[in-house]
User: Fold 5'-3' exoribonuclease 1 from Monodelphis domestica.
Amino acid sequence: MGVPKFYRWISERYPCLSEVVKEHQIPEFDNLYLDMNGIIHQCSHPNDDDVHFRISDDKIFTDIFHYLEVLFRIIKPRKVFFMAVDGVAPRAKMNQQRGRRFRAAKEAEDKIKKALEKGEILPSEARFDSNCITPGTEFMARLHEHLKYFVNMKISSDKSWQGVTIYLSGHETPGEGEHKIMEFIRSEKGKPDHDPNIRHCLYGLDADLIMLGLTSHESHFSLLREEVRFGGKKTQRVCAPEETTFHLLHLSLMREYIDYEFSALKDKISFKYDIERIIDDWILMGFLVGNDFIPHLPHLHINHDALPLLYRTYMTVLPELGGYINENGHLNLPRFEKYLIKLSDFDREHFSEVFVDLKWFESKVGNKYLNEAAGIAAEEAKNYKQKKRLVGQENSMCLAALDKTKEEVMTSKSVIEDEPEDDDLFETEFRQYKRTYYMTKMGVEIVSEVPLMVS
Assistant:
């Protein structure tokens, strides 16, 4: 699961988290876990833009085995080496994968078509189809058999692999690779002879591994990944691991950063300050900025400082909640509702700023309503109120005529006050803006007035 821009934000806000892996300067690790699909993709199609690139299955298998050897040699696990290949994914992930695969096939077809139009001569061999990296395909079945042979060969011929417990969770075991790894860690942690000082190292490319590693609540946990360069032109991925710069991201230090970030709460809350519960709530807040499956809340973008806003709101509202939002994996809905109500203040303030700019722009282009749907709704609301006001005035005049008193006429007129048109338009625009978000982001076909009236 990807969280767009999350890894970059973490790296820039906490620059000391990550260190470059240097030979003979690697911390000792007991367990090494590999999310294998990143390695498989990198070794099978390192450059999708090159339509001339061809590679055989045997070459792919050889490159994968070499990558495994290099990672094992870098980390040197002392107890456990766990390799996890993605199995059958949950339904939400399946829908995402289906879209990715159709898109990948279409893009590959378009690139080949453009190359032929330019007169380029393409190799006669079939191009590797990355869609075969799917549980249940012949390619994955052959890869699994080759991996088993490779592991047996290394155990029998390489002394560094001997004495280490090796696990291979293949494509036939359901679940994504990183989740199978976390399930293994939780099962080991539940054993009575578990050592709390076990040092874990997890290799993977997804940003959500930071959150998964923190949910383990293990004191010594690090992430291993290739160097990521932000900005600039996109470069070709390097397949050879010897040419790759690896980074270690220390989640143990991340825990200390989070503790420091929320340390001001220690003197404000009436209940016990628990860093483990703070971390659980920190992870929960991370979902509000969206990921591969959940849309972000309105205006909450990581590159627009959404995360600091979430943290400030949390520090403001937590002393009033009487406890943490995430209670050992169970969401406390009343507390979460109070948090979202406080967070909604920002949504209204932000839209108010946008509304001022919108009205200025409308005055320049001569269009009364840039938002057509909101404009129609505003006109209908305005006409309804005018009609209601006229009816009220007629009734008041009738009552005044019956009573023959001027004072009552003035009183009845003063009861009916005109509401400012701008306020009506702002509320209508704000409701329409929320309706559009629910319909486009959340996929809600019919939005009732109840959620729109909540500010």
Q: What stands out?
A: Residues 2 and 206 are 6 Å apart (CA to CA). The first helix runs from residue 6 to 13. The first strand starts at residue 18 and ends at 20.
